[in-house]
Amino acid sequence: MIYFPLQAALCLSLLFRSADVSFPTGKAIELSFEYLEACETGAKECQPVLINRKKGEQVTLALPAMNRASVGLWDAENYQRLQLRKFPYKAVEQQGSGNDTKALVFDLSKREDGIYYLWLTSCGVGGTYEVRLKTEVQLWILASRSC
């Protein structure tokens, strides 16, 4: 089952369906090539990818299949250090593809809430894309009975 939250669907044309991508159960967010390209060219305002999840929910983020792609997932602290060239800095996850044009999938299930950045370079498109990950807080209302 693939679930697309309304907020993510509103971020330009964020949905991208690909037959060669399989996801585990849970929430899957698929970024379209059109969204990535619009952000790169400035054709439209590049909205952050908003991902709301429930506690313990499995969440994956997929990018479309691209030739010779390299993608780094950076947390906000390391990304800031990278921008300032203050060592040490390191991506929390790095993926890539060769000529095999495979979709790149990031499992965000165990990542902490916060702002992340996808730094993408490929033959077709490139740039930095902001991803905001947030776990929904469940409130329990305690009813009290008065005499």
Question: Can I get a quick summary?
Answer:
This protein has helices at residues 6-10, 33-41, 76-84; strands at residues 27-30, 49-53, 59-63, 70-75, 93-96, 104-107, 114-121, 127-135. By secondary structure, the chain is an alpha/beta fold.
Helix content: 10-25%
Strand order of the largest sheet: 2-8-7-4-5
Q: Distance N terminus to C terminus? A: 48 Å
Largest sheet, described in full? 5 strands, mixed
Low-confidence stretches: 1-22
Specify the number of helices: 3
Helix-strand makeup class: alpha/beta
Provide the residue-averaged pLDDT.
82
Principal-axis shape: globular
What is the secondary structure topology, with strand pairs?
Blueprint: H1 6-10, E1 27-30, H2 33-41, E2 49-53, E3 59-63, E4 70-75, H3 76-84, E5 93-96, E6 104-107, E7 114-121, E8 127-135
Parallel strand pairs: 1-3, 2-8
Antiparallel strand pairs: 3-6, 4-5, 4-7, 7-8
Tell me about this structure.
Residues 1-22 have low confidence and may be disordered. It contains three helices and eight strands. The N and C termini lie far apart (48 Å). The strands form two sheets. Strands 2-8-7-4-5 form a five-stranded mixed β-sheet. The chain is globular, with a radius of gyration of 17 Å. With 147 residues, it is α/β, with parallel strands linked by helices. A hairpin with a 5-residue loop joins strand 7 (114-121) and strand 8.
Describe the structure using short key phrases:
alpha/beta, 3-stranded mixed sheet, 31% strand, single chain, 3 helices, 5-stranded mixed sheet, 147 residues
